[in-house]
């Protein structure tokens, strides 16, 4: 079973957190507990090969790999809860909501979209070349690659430079993910594509995006509300790819406001 942290709050709604690529529960545990812990019972799940979670056996087929990860998350999460996924975690949360909607009361995708990488008819995403470069870099020097990635995630945040340096240093102090977890996660970022299913989800959905996210083109952010007709879309002014770190209260307020309507 995956490593998980449960911050119990009897008689409160359950809120499950799935972190992004290169991270672990520690990246947002304090923020979640300080800003949301009084209102929800928090369930923080660490992805395979990240934090204290063991890696899962690799699969040659991306679909099988995705199912292996999703099954592991489903085993670790409550039988029914609100579901919050950040970046890669948002894609995994979408897969769970599509596959087992009865277990998801509402879905929040933080700094996440229905598809992470570009193809011929989807330009609002990360280029295949960048993904290939990341895969090569991770295999050559995962520590250096992660440092660059953590710095990239904060680019565009309207916060003091020293705060960005502190975030990157804090991430470097954590236990490094396994190489298997990193490479499998990159495969899933390239594989997942929920553009068709995202408009058909039966539960309430919130897309919570940073105004200056370097991994989500601004043109897409501006048009996203017209694409997601059945969902709520909120743009966090001044934030980038890690809104909970750069704009902690604004991010928490948006989540609480959305869930208060449920």
UniProtKB/TrEMBL annotation:
PANTHER family: HYDROLASE ALPHA/BETA FOLD FAMILY, PIMELOYL-[ACYL-CARRIER PROTEIN] METHYL ESTER ESTERASE. Signal peptide: none annotated. Keywords: Biotin biosynthesis, Cytoplasm, Hydrolase, Serine esterase. One of its GO terms (molecular function) is serine-type endopeptidase activity. InterPro entries: AB_hydrolase_1, AB_hydrolase_fold, BioH, Carboxylesterase_BioH, Pept_S9_AS. GO terms for biological process: biotin biosynthetic process; proteolysis. This is Pimeloyl-[acyl-carrier protein] methyl ester esterase. The keyword Manganese does not apply. It comes from the Bacteria. It holds the Pfam family Abhydrolase_1. Gene3D superfamilies: alpha/beta hydrolase (3.40.50.1820). Residues 17-248 form the AB hydrolase-1 domain.
């Amino acid at each position: 079973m995956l490593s998980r942290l449960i911050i119990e709050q009897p008689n409160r709604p359950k809120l499950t957190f799935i972190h992004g690529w290169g991270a672990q529960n520690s990246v947002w545990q304090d923020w979640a507990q300080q800003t949301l812990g009084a209102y929800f019972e928090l369930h923080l799940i660490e992805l395979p090969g990240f934090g204290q979670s063991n890696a899962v056996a690799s699969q040659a087929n991306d679909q099988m790999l995705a199912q292996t990860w999703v099954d592991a998350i489903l085993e670790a999460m409550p039988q029914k809860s609100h579901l919050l996924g950040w970046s890669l975690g948002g894609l995994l949360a979408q897969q769970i909501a599509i596959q087992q909607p009865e277990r998801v009361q509402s879905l929040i995708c933080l700094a996440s979209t229905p598809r992470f990488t570009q193809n011929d008819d989807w330009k609002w995403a990360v280029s295949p070349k960048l993904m290939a470069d990341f895969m090569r870099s991770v295999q050559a020097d995962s520590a250096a690659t992660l440092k660059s990635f953590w710095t990239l995630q904060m680019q565009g945040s309207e916060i003091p430079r020293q705060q960005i340096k502190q975030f990157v240093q804090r991430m470097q102090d954590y236990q490094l993910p396994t190489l298997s977890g990193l490479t499998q996660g990159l495969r899933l970022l390239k594989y997942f594509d929920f553009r068709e299913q995202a408009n058909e989800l039966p539960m309430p959905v919130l897309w919570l995006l940073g105004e200056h996210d370097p991994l989500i083109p601004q043109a897409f952010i501006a048009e996203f509300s017209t694409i997601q007709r059945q969902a709520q879309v909120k743009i966090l002014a001044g934030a980038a790819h890690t809104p909970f770190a750069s704009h902690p209260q604004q991010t928490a307020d948006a989540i609480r406001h959305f869930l208060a309507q449920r």
